[in-house]
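Table S4 entry, Histidine ammonia-lyase.
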Amino acid sequence: MSPVVLTPGAATLADWRAIHAGADVALHDAAWGAIATSAAAVARILAKGAAVYGINTGFGKLASVRIADEDLAALQRNIVLSHAAGTGAPSPIPVVRLMMALKLASLAQGASGVRPETVRLLEAMLRAGLVPVVPCQGSVGASGDLAPLSHMTATMLGVGEIFVNGVAQPAAQALAAAGLEPIALGPKEGLALLNGTQFSTANALAGLFAAERLLATGLVTGALSTEAARGTDTPFDHRIHALRGHGGQIETAAALRALMAGSAIRASHAVDDPRVQDPYCLRCQPQVMGAALDVLRQAARTLEIEANGVTDNPLIFPEADEALSGGNFHAEPVAFAADMIALALAEIGSLSERRLAMLVDPALSGLPAFLTPLPGLHSGFMIPQVTAAALVSENKQRAAPCSVDSIPTSANQEDHVSMAAHGARRLLDMAGNLDAILGLELLAAVQGIEFHAPLRSSEALEAVRAMLRAAVPPLVEDRHFAPDIAVARAMVERGAVLAACPLSLPVLG
């Protein structure tokens, strides 16, 4: 994988996707001048002797407390150690790497007052594969993701733990082994490093990338289910969707038409099928999946802007030697984006489970009950559908909006918070549930299609069926089902379903 060279303020969604997938990261050479200029401005501001929040004052409710010059280094170290108050399981390593890269790009815009040597250490840690152990709980999404970013920053001081090749080591030991030394923070640096939305944004981006894969996979499993039920592709006719005009609906309908093109099963529908219309879970796929695609693209636009922004406080403006306090650390845009991603994940799964429920019901699908050749003696797909229903309900519960919640913190100085970290952290768990739901539908739809032999589906869908059957045999008699589910889920999770499908499916950009 090619390394990503970050141009501050101009990184693309593809850049962040590659970093999340493990690409190396480096700052563009042009960034270092702005970083140095910003740090020099902090020195000039300090020389004026005025009280400036975050540089020579306390923090939050203690902003009115003036700090003596000889205590400024201790002030920055203290804020990092005191704010490293997270709890819970360690955040996933790909998410923490993405958080580090986001912070790197933000500091490099020259509005944070951080010295080049501090930024170089963060870049060097990424390059050396040193990933701080960051507890996943403790942020309310304003005043920035304080606790998670403090845990990241503490490791730069030689405090806390760092993952090296997936194994946690004392931070000082890991830095030394990589030929790096802990830093002593300068004025403003501690606050600049721990203030911002990078933890929430990294989690939201990780959820977005998973949702992109899952939406495309859901189109494939939806087409397979339509084939298994001998459904019609008439509802996917481009003329229907052009009259409504939603871009996502038009694109997903086109994808479904392409997936089913050339299918002998589809062609058989018009010959001897008395049904006039298919149920909504088949017929309304473009309307539901297209709406999910549009929502995900809106979330992607928000997160791409956020990822290229500067979200710490105060912000340094070297041209005027000013430090301006504001509220860019408030993660409300990320919270809204995370809520939208959660809604899309829940609805993709809900539609998939309804297709699975339709397939196991002979009154609706025309297939053998529970997709087993000998129903009664064998239960077939009876309980896998229950499993899908359980996972769908869990995702629906998790999809309740987080952005509408708030709780005052810091003695009511921070009296409205975004809960963006909560909203973003749930997304990977929801995506994991959806991996399983779509894996269950994949198993059921392929089983259903094979009842129509010798009729075959389209080239694209037959390629997916062949991939599954290379690992999971048809269900002729009841057997231990959990291993089949694990295989199908893994195929969805690692993108194997999409890799087997020789078609271009909708992506976010």
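The longest helix spans residues 198-228.
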